[in-house]
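SECTION: protein entry
WANTED: fold as tokens:
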Amino acid sequence: MGTSYGNSLSDPLSDPDFIDSPPMIQPKFTSRSQSIRAVIGDTITLPCDVENLGNNILLWRRGSAVVTAASLIITRDTRFKLLKGYTLQIKNVRPQDAGDYSCQVGDHDNRDLVHTVEILVPPSVRSNPETGHVTVRKGGTATLECKASGNPVPSISWTRKDSLHGSPHLADGPTLTLDAVSRQDSGTYRCYADNGIREPVFVDMQLIVLCEF
């Protein structure tokens, strides 16, 4: 008489553990990525609003560096602060603060929201040489030079400060060249730098033409 085997597999529909759980609602960013331009010294805020965060942790990253985790400030830079929710505030911004900031949901998908920050720097200018004095003999060539920095890169222009005809525009660019100079070319020349951030700045250079008597 053969051995009778019962049905060793239970009916999945009768298994209380086999119950379809409702699909998990995924986190969703309600903020949008932004390109933020700020002048050095300003305070900026980077929004990060998320729906259905659940038990996930929200991270702020700059590159590979973690800035915040949940409500904790990881960076030692005291200029960084979390405002209501997960909005990141940066006070007294510096040029080195430029870059991409990612607000990231710490789940298996690592979904993130990225803000790009550009720091605008007002122009600065200096003469070359730093003494601001250039001496050349009559009939020679005088070269006046100034160097400017800032973001965006400043434009440079030259005027004659002590001209009898006001301050006419002489040239654009970091170098002003005067050929076959005479006694009348002696005087003060002004180098302007302007990039549209705050006010233009300038530096004065003194040209001395040596004449034989």
